[in-house]
Amino acid sequence: MADIVLDKVTKSYPDGTVAVHGIDLEIADGEFIILVGPSGCGKSTTLNMIAGLEDITSGELRIGGQRVNDKAPKDRDIAMVFQSYALYPNMTVRENMAFPLKLAKLDKATINQKVEEAARVLELTDYLDRKPANLSGGQRQRVAMGRAIVRSPKAFLMDEPLSNLDAKLRVQMRTQVSRLQKQLGTTTVYVTHDQTEAMTLGDRVVVMRGGHIQQVGDPQTLYDNPVNLFVAGFIGSPAMNFLPAAVEDSMLRTPLGDLPLGDRMKRTLGAGDAPRQLIVGIRPEHFEDAKLIDEAQRAKGFEFTAPVDLVESMGSDKYVYFTVEGEHAAAADLEDLAADAGGADLPPQDSLVTRLSAESRVRDGADARVWLNLDKIHLFDPRDGKNITLHEGRAAGVAAS
Amino acid sequence: MATATTSAKVKWGFLDAVVVVFALIPVLWIASLSFKTTPTLTDGNFIPRDWTLDNYKLIFQTDQFVRALINSIGIALIATAIAVVLGTMAAYAISRLDFPGKSLLVGVSLLIAMFPQVSLVTPLFNIERNIGLFDTWLGLILPYITFALPLAIYTLSAFFKQIPWDLEKAAKMDGATQGEAFRKVIAPLAAPGVFTTAILVFIFCWNDFLFAISLTSTERSRTVPAALSFFTGASQFEDPTGAISAAAVVITIPIILFVLFFQRRIVAGLTSGAVKG
Ligand SMILES: Nc1ncnc2c1ncn2[C@@H]1O[C@H](COP(=O)(O)OP(=O)(O)OP(=O)(O)O)[C@@H](O)[C@H]1O
Ligand SMILES: [Mg+2]
To answer: Which of A322, A335, B120, B237 is the most buried (most CB within 10 A)?
Structure first.
């Protein structure tokens, strides 16, 4: 057990690609931390540097307070679970799990006992004498886990360990991984490009993009207070709605109508270098059917009428899609998000996704009156993607005074 | 459906039979010749009328053949061992590492494989005579290794490429040194490739006639294919065909043994199950 500290860690490959740009990250002892980001953002590279499979170009990596930059993987005492599982095909499940223990020169009895223990925890006891080729995907995944946990390492590294499983199994294994980690209390660094996995598993989530860390925080913080357009769009499913906005006459002109601005926002936007063009971000659940809003709440929000495109009833609530006329929000961050097919699921540009109460009576094809919560909306500067509604790290909406 | 499969079976069975017969008839003919007595050699019968083991007795009585057999086995085994070891290391490097001059190395080895051996015989003859390698084991082992290496490197790197690199990383994470990772994880998986290559290289060395006849002059290093051409009958005027046939049969036996021995180790699909595929 140990903490892991990355101090300005940089990786440039021989061909000149800089995959990771001076990352600073402190992972506490026993913490479950998730690295998430679109494909090619440097997650695996970061993990491999912690593992010792890739050299660190500059910066320092400390595990348990000790500098380990120049240590071979075997001297770092870390276990890793690979996306491909990387089971030794010529060995049985038992031999696979015993392999790290044999290399550590433990005696036979201890090895046996540890392997059986791990097999019991992972429900693999019946398969101990099978070869990996004769196991299902989920079982192989568990063997890979087993090989990591048998030797009680200082930390676990997992590189998209569930991405080869089908959707249902992935959800099952997700809870199992989570439970196992809690049980063992071992520091874990987990890489995924699936934001749902990131949100549900981690104590803290690190959002990466292009070799830079965008934001580090617990899942709720990332969801509620994204520091920029990229994080806002990446976290959450369905994703946040983005609309173009312009500041005119102390109002925020958007395709939905003119939104009022609070005093603080006015001050911020009044500054000389403040952007004129903005992007509004609104999460689907911050809309509501205007008929269902009580008077006290009505005052805190803004109402508009829009044609309903489609209603999807989920039972507990309704996803209602509206068509919005006018321009589309444009920013480099949004293009990045749209380019990453696997990760964020951005709604199509001219549609607005809202999540309304199940009691809502809106129907396809008809116009509906919708309320939106002004305290919960975000404003982003399209030039650098920064969230300008953040106040002392918390998003405060546009109406705050 | 059932009739379709039956007729397909018949068709394939027939084709297989044609191929087998085509390949085996010359071999059987040689075997049959080796059991015939000298007067009946040319009677054109497939099954010998007059069975005899004299030809076999004869070749093992002559020092010439036994000595050549020892040379053949020794030279082929040594050349195979060296070529396979060097080839394994080279193929591993080619499939795993990115080093400057890699494509040059691959290109050159391909070039060597394509080089007509005949054109090298005269220069090699002169070189070996000058440096004292002519008519020695080493004088044959060296060219054999040279020509077997490209073959070995090509076959082996194909095998290495099939082994997921993650396995090696996993072994390192599990606490293995680079050497242990190779020995305990990669080598066992590469074994079928190594054995296949060993068989191919051994057959290449064993069958060579060109170098064997040109770079040797005495029994000291003459291998069987070359020695066969010097065979005479029991007397100078006797037809040596029977003896040559017997020798030809005898020298196919080590090959068959070699292949059978290694073939059992070539288990297909050894890497399946390593990764989700
Ligand atoms: N050996 C290499 N040589 C050069 N560039 C590399 C090498 N390996 C990775 N890269 C580059 O480094 C960047 C980060 O790669 P990395 O594998 O860390 O991405 P990732 O975040 O794990 O993506 P994914 O989700 O697709 O696995 C990519 O742009 C990639 O092209
Ligand atoms: Mg990756």
So the answer is: A322
